[in-house]
Amino acid sequence: MRITSITARAVDCGFNSQKLQTSRVASPMSRFPRFAEQRASWMWPTKKVFVRVTGEDGSTGWGCTNGGEIVEMIINSHLARLAKGESVDDLPSLNEMMAASLLPNDRSGFAMMAVAGADIALWDLTARARNKPLVDLLGGAGVDSLPVYMTTPRPEAFVAGPWRGLKAAAPYGPESGEEGLKENVALMRRFAKAAGPDVPIMIDAFLAWDADYTLRFAEACADMPLAWIEDPIPPQDIEGLEKIRQGMDPEIELALGNFAFSYADCKDLLRSGLVGYLQPDVAWAGGISETLRILDLAKAAEVPVILHNTCEQPWALALAASRQTDALVECVDRGETSPLYTLMGARPGFTEGHAAVPSDSTGNQPPEYVLERFAADAFNNRKG
């Protein structure tokens, strides 16, 4: 089957109103006072980008990624015309073609988000055409459910729960001095108390720290079950990551890769030998086709992969269930209700700290669901 059209539309789904966006969370912008108190004050374009692919038989596939109007433009103005008329029989090659077309300008960030959105939609189109759940198209699930760790701003909501870990978002970085460091450590004590003695705790620094600060924090948490520090510094700073790894307790891992946007980015990280857990985001790192290559790369390097923000992405759950052994997945706690839980599929059910694997459909809601709830006329050339 050949592609007749690819269309993207950026839709405001309320991302910047989420608690993790309206609270103080350390970030690369924390050192600028104007942007320190709320991540929403500086965040890159946060509209979700829905991608619709149409085949020559009139069938459709759907994808979803981030990057707002920037990613929408890349897909509509560039990738759509390249993909039109191409066959969907070889999705990895089609993915490589789209990524290669962006290489002279960029092969990271927004560029790979655009490729990811289109790629996910193409896999969805193929799964629907074959009347198969995505997880079966990927080889079939080896399990019915997957163990979950929670990323949350409210650890007390998960006291003594059956989760595989509780992860905090660091509120402070070096710009906040000694008091900020003490607050970060105090936060981890809250998490350790809520998690209980047998449940690991983790912290996401969102590229906000430096090597020395990371080492000071790790030393201050020496009496706690700290499993990993996530993205303390930019992934390109291999020298800084080496300093952290050499100076930090070997029991504390470095979790890296949220901001590794491609196979090439992940390969560079893994080559360093510093990665304890690799955590790419399927909807950022080139989509399903690129992530399949990343999973093979990490398997060869014997580095475990935890797909970023897994439980809001049915395709990520399908990949974890079908292509990983002993997978662990992430659920971002956005409170009891959030529209972000159900953008492209029903929120997975949780039983004893495990998320159900989507197996009764491709994992995506029918297009009417997405369009009615977030922009009923988004694909009819009216304001959405």
Give helix % range: 25-40%
Structural class: alpha/beta
What would you call the shape? globular
Give the total of beta strands. 12
- Radius of gyration equals 20 Å
Order of helices and strands: EHEEHHHHEEHEHEHEHEHHEEEH
Rounded mean pLDDT is 91
Number of domains: 2
Strand residues, percent: 15-25%
Distance between the termini: 31 Å
Please describe the biggest sheet, giving its number of strands, its sense, and whether it closes into a barrel: 9 strands, mixed
- Name of the CATH first level of the largest domain: Alpha Beta
How many helices does DSSP assign?
12
The CATH topology of the largest domain is given as: TIM Barrel
Low-confidence stretches: 361-377
> What CATH architecture label of the largest domain applies?
Alpha-Beta Barrel
**In the CATH hierarchy, what is the superfamily of the largest domain?**
Enolase-like C-terminal domain
